[in-house]
């Protein structure tokens, strides 16, 4: 029987998950493709490490040996970092292979170049697994929301930071304790900077903005605030107001300009992201025809990620290449002048004319924490907060929810 020949680059959590899935779902794949799927090569860094790989499969640390495999059809990349993945995927495309990657860092930096390369060599580049793991986010945009004009996405794209925020809120831990718990459970890496400083979410947001609007923003132009050292008191403050603090990656299209941000925001109980806790990811998507929909599910892990990759793999043979770029969109300037609602937490609110909608005083241990719900532009609020190290500001993702308690005025 004729076969589809596949090489895996990387055999860690994701690579091994794909390897196992291709074997466990071989019958289903054959039924869908009419061909056997054969893993003919695996590229790793250390070829002497013991691995559960059939003896007839080539295991090597030399990419040239993978590229020499005759009639190789598809290369699936699951290595970490921009290089060597970038070079390897270009070489694979040069030899006529379709490529699938889970590597968000690579796509966030080199997605445009890889897309152009794929066009030049008439091969496909697919990357469902790179954004929100097992959630079919990319496929939903490319295949199910082709006509909808997407005006807003608010998303939880990093399971580690969502787990930490949920753990602090549910178990009254401080940030360090919740991070240690995430590391113990295997949700956070030994070096968690990419997750808690928001880089990982930023990479994924950039992939989405490229897919939807053809925009790969310059990093420094994007608001990008992590959750490092977020105070337990602020999370309790949000709870007292009937809200939660979530690390939200968002894209909003206003008058042809796309505004991108990654930051901790307060969400009320009516907001679709309010109930998304633990390691889950979710995307609240607003399209002009469909209205608002919520996609929610596992954002990482061996099988959810393999699920995304294997669906991409089958689509290579069953669907035409899809693009979803709204052409007439530009990147919005760095700070917004649009009026929004915020919760400010601090000791004293300077009298600078910002309209105060509500004042709160919430007990925390033996003291009371002061806060204000205010209306202001991002430019005004960021400037106010940057001038006062004791003041923190959280944008409210508005859904019309009402404050639960207002302790004193
Ligand atoms: N883990 C997830 O849940 C998840 C979800 C979505 C996307 N992703 C993305 O998928 C990619 C892989 O993640 P992972 O969690 O599977 O990583 P991982 O467990 O650290 O595995 C990385 C694999 O790449 C191999 N490798 C590293 N450097 C290499 C090099 N220079 N040449 C050849 N092979 C090399 C390693 O080889 P050795 O085995 O010899 O060390 C290992 O097999 C990353 O880009 C990640 O962002 C991961």
Overview of this structure, please?
- The structure is a single chain.
- By secondary structure, this protein is an alpha/beta fold.
- It contains 13 helices and 17 strands.
- The strands form 2 sheets. Strands 7, 8, 9, 10, 11, 12, 13, 14, 15, 16 and 17 form an 11-stranded mixed β-sheet that branches.
- The longest helix is centred in the N-terminal third of the chain and has 17 residues.
- It is elongated and about 75 Å long.
- The C terminus is likely disordered.
- The structure holds NADP nicotinamide-adenine-dinucleotide phosphate (NAP).
- The site of NADP nicotinamide-adenine-dinucleotide phosphate (NAP) has 24 residues, from helix 1.
């Amino acid at each position: 029987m004729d076969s589809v020949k596949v090489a895996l680059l990387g055999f860690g959590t994701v690579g091994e998950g794909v390897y196992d899935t291709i074997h466990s779902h071989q019958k289903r794949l054959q039924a869908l493709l009419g061909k056997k799927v054969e893993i003919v090569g695996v590229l790793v860094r250390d070829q002497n490490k013991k691995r559960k790989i059939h003896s007839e499969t080539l295991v090597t640390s030399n990419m040239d040996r993978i590229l020499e495999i005759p009639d190789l059809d598809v290369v699936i990349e699951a290595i970490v970092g921009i290089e060597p993945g970038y070079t390897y995927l270009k070489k694979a495309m040069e030899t006529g292979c379709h490529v699938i990657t889970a590597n968000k860092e690579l796509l966030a930096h080199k997605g445009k170049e890889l897309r152009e390369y794929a066009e030049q060599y008439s091969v496909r580049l697919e990357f469902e697994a790179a954004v929100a793991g097992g959630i079919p986010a990319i496929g939903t945009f490319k295949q199910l929301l082709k006509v909808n004009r997407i005006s807003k996405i608010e998303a939880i794209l990093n399971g580690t930071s969502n787990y930490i925020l949920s753990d602090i809120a549910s178990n009254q831990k401080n940030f360090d304790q919740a991070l240690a718990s995430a590391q113990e459970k295997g949700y956070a890496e030994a070096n968690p900077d990419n997750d808690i400083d928001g880089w990982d979410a930023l990479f994924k947001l950039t992939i989405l903005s490229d897919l939807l609007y053809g925009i790969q923003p310059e990093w420094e132009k994007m608001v990008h605030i992590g959750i490092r050292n977020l105070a337990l008191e602020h999370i309790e403050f949000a709870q007292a107001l009937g809200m939660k603090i979530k690390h939200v990656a968002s894209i909003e299209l206003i008058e042809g300009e796309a505004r991108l941000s990654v930051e901790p925001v307060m969400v009320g109980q009516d907001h679709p992201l309010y109930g998304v806790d633990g390691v889950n990811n979710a995307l609240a998507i607003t399209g002009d025809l469909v209205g608002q929909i919520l996609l929610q599910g596992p954002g990482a892990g061996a099988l959810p990620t393999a699920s995304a990759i294997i669906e991409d793999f089958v689509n290579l043979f069953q669907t035409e290449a899809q693009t979803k770029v709204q052409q007439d969109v530009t990147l919005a300037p760095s700070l917004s002048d649009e009026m929004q609602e915020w919760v400010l937490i601090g000791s004293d609110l300077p009298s600078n004319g910002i309209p105060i909608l509500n004042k709160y005083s919430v007990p925390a241990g033996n003291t009371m924490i002061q806060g204000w719900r205010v209306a202001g532009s991002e430019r005004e609020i960021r400037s106010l907060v940057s001038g006062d190290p004791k003041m923190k500001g959280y944008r409210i993702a508005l859904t019309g929810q009402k404050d639960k308690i207002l302790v004193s005025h």
